[in-house]
Amino acid sequence: MKGETQAVHLARIMQKHKLYPEYELALPLVKVKKSSFKKLTQGDILLLGLDGLELILLLEGCVCANAEINEAQNSFKIKITNIVEKTDILNHSKKYEILKCSFGMLQSRKLEVGHKIDIAQLNLEDVTLFTEGRKQAEGKLVKVDDEIAIQIIKVNKNEKQR
C-alpha cells in the first residue's frame, strides 16, 4: 500500500516537472466584432472562414509555428510545416477582439520543420475560446457548408463581466 502511494506521489511530481517546452495548439487567430461576441450564447455557431484544419503552435502567447494533422500508424500527430520567425501583432481595437481557439497544451523537445508531435492526449473536437487571456467559452468543432465552425457548448458569463 505504501509503495502505491509513493508511486502515485512520484507520478504527480513528474507531471508537474516539465522536461520540454510547452506549446499551445490552436486554430489561427481570428478577429471578431465585440458586439457580436458579447451576444454569444449556448448553441450558437461561430463561423471561422477556414476551409481546412489549419493549426498554429503558440509559445507564451506568440505564434511560433504552423502545423497540419498527419495520421501515422492509427495515431494522430501534428507535423510542423513552417516556423514563424516574426509574428504579426494583431492588436485589439474598439470594434474587434482577437479570438484564440485553443485545443490545449503539448510538449515537444524540438521545434523544426517536418518534426511530428504526438497529440493523443488532446481532443481535437473540443475547443476553448479565449480573448485577452480570459476564457470566454467552450465549444466543439463542426462543419458547416464545407467550412470549419465552432458550436458553442458553454459561455462563461462571469468572465465577460470583468
Topology:
Layout: H1 2-16, E1 22-26, E2 30-33, H2 34-38, E3 45-50, E4 55-59, E5 62-72, E6 75-83, E7 96-107, E8 116-118, E9 126-131, E10 134-144, E11 147-155, H3 157-160
Antiparallel strand pairs: 1-4, 1-7, 2-7, 3-11, 4-5, 5-6, 6-8, 7-9, 9-10, 10-11
Kindly describe this structure.
- With 162 residues, this protein is mainly beta.
- It has helices at 2-16, 34-38, 157-160, and strands at 22-26, 30-33, 45-50, 55-59, 62-72, 75-83, 96-107, 116-118, 126-131, 134-144, 147-155.
- Strands 1, 2, 3, 4, 5, 6, 7, 8, 9, 10 and 11 form an eleven-stranded antiparallel β-sheet that branches.
- The termini are far apart.
In short:
This is Flagellar motor switch protein FliN-like C-terminal domain-containing protein. By secondary structure, the protein is mainly β.
- Provide a count of the helices: 3
Which regions contain 5 or more consecutive residues with pLDDT less than 50? none
Shape: globular
**What number is the mean pLDDT?**
83
Order of helices and strands: HEEHEEEEEEEEEH
Main sheet characteristics: 11 strands, antiparallel
Helix content percent band:
10-25%
The helix-and-strand class reads: mainly beta
How many domains would you count in the coordinates?
A: 1
**How many angstroms separate the termini?**
47 Å
Number of strands: 11
Beta-strand residue fraction: over 45%
Rg, alpha carbons: 18 Å
Labels describing this entry:
162 residues, mainly beta, eleven-stranded antiparallel sheet, 3 helices, 11 strands, globular, SpoA-like_sf, Flagellar motor switch protein FliN-like C-terminal domain-containing protein
